[in-house]
Automatic annotation (TrEMBL):
This is Ribokinase. Homodimer. The keyword Magnesium applies. It comes from Dictyobacter halimunensis. Gene3D superfamilies: 3.40.1190.20. It holds the Pfam family PfkB. Residues 6-303 form the Carbohydrate kinase PfkB domain. Pathway: Carbohydrate metabolism; D-ribose degradation; D-ribose 5-phosphate from beta-D-ribopyranose: step 2/2. Transmembrane segments: none annotated. Catalyzes the phosphorylation of ribose at O-5 in a reaction requiring ATP and magnesium. The resulting D-ribose-5-phosphate can then be used either for sythesis of nucleotides, histidine, and tryptophan, or as a component of the pentose phosphate pathway. Belongs to the carbohydrate kinase PfkB family. Ribokinase subfamily. Belongs to the carbohydrate kinase pfkB family. Its cofactor is Mg(2+). It is found in: Cytoplasm. SUPFAM superfamilies: Ribokinase-like.
């Protein structure tokens, strides 16, 4: 029997990257330290590519513009054998773009122009196709670079079909507790965890605490990523008690942290879909994302299964 695909509904952006000696301040004109590089990105597309490179069957639904970037974003998915039959070309909006300034420490400042990503969910025909696809997928993966109403609607629909939903709440957006309780896995970074919970998340202890609160609100598995510190995963043990697993990230030579979180989400999803334990899935996701940060670009830097190992 063929494996059911993992469906990503989300954003595609052309990342337009300029290296800078430092990030500019308000009102400043700064000369870049490189010519511009165009790299396919967008949280949805990055997570789709991360999963495909790690060995999953992946389908991606989203919207591109009628411009050359749109075609390049689609081709990038197809290069990684991702099913693009649910990608629609939008006749009103341009393809999503991200303008990324990357400093010498590998840190970035990003402005996203959503473009056609902002219309995901507004086209009833496309939504019907997504609803149909949901009947035959293994899991649904989403982020918040498409309208939140669309994300909420798809969480409801997937939940009613018993399809597990992995939500990366990035950028952060408040969601009702009832909606959150229909997720299978929530992945957030420190900033997002803080915005969602209304509590500071500045240390590993804060992350443990906030993760446990979110878990007790009804989310079966909560993961908070902590950049160079690694990540914590909070779920329930066999007795139903709150269980917290921390995994440190290895020390690596950081080149570009763009899409580290996306790589993490993709790897975690693939490992869980393969039936790995949460602790093993967490280790796998940390390993994959720590490789990502040593390489340039969003999709261009995502590792393959052979790079990460089992
Ligand atoms: P986001 O990119 O969404 O802000 P994080 O910064 O928390 O997310 O990074 C996600 C994951 O990427 C981390 O949990 C870690 O595994 C890996 N990672 C990020 N930065 C580093 C780093 N400097 N060194 C090693 N691993 C890193
Ligand atoms: Na971060």
């Amino acid at each position: 029997m063929p494996v059911k695909p993992i469906l990503v509904v989300g954003s595609l952006n052309m990342d337009q990257v300029v290296r800078v000696p430092r990030l500019p301040v308000m009102g400043e004109t700064l000369l870049g330290a490189s010519s511009i590089t165009f790299v396919p990105g967008g949280k949805g597309a990055n997570q789709a590519v991360a999963m495909a490179r790690l060995g999953a069957q992946v389908q991606m639904a989203g919207r591109i513009g009628q411009d050359p970037f749109g075609q390049q974003l689609k081709a990038a998915l197809e290069d990684d054998q991702i099913d693009t039959s649910l990608l629609v070309t939008d006749t009103e909006a341009a393809s999503g773009s991200a303008f990324i300034f990357l400093n010498e420490q590998g840190e970035n400042a990003i402005v996203v122009s959503s473009g056609s990503n902002g219309n995901v969910g507004k086209d009833q025909r496309q939504m019907e196709h997504i609803f149909d696809a949901l009947e035959q997928v293994q899991a649904l993966v989403m982020q918040m670079e498409i309208p939140h109403e669309t994300v909420e609607l798809l969480i409801e629909r997937a939940h009613s079909l018993n399809v597990p939903v992995i939500l990366n709440l990035a950028p952060a957006h408040p969601l009702r507790r009832e909606t959150l309780s229909k997720l299978s896995v929530l992945v957030v970074n420190e900033t997002e965890a803080s915005l969602l919970s209304g509590q500071p998340v500045e240390s590993l202890d804060d992350a443990r605490h906030v993760g446990a609160i979110l878990h007790e609100h009804g989310i079966p598995t909560v993961v908070i990523t902590l950049g160079a510190q690694g990540a914590v995963l909070i779920n329930a043990d066999e007795q139903g008690q709150t269980n917290i697993i921390y995994q440190q990230a290895p020390k690596v030579n950081v080149v570009d942290t763009t899409a580290a979180g996306d790589c993490f989400v993709g790897a975690l999803t693939v490992a869980l879909a393969e039936g790995q334990t949460p602790a093993d899935a967490l280790r796998f996701a940390i390993r994959a994302s720590s490789i990502k940060v040593t390489r340039f670009g969003a999709q261009s830097g995502l590792p393959r299964r052979s790079d990460v190992g089992e």
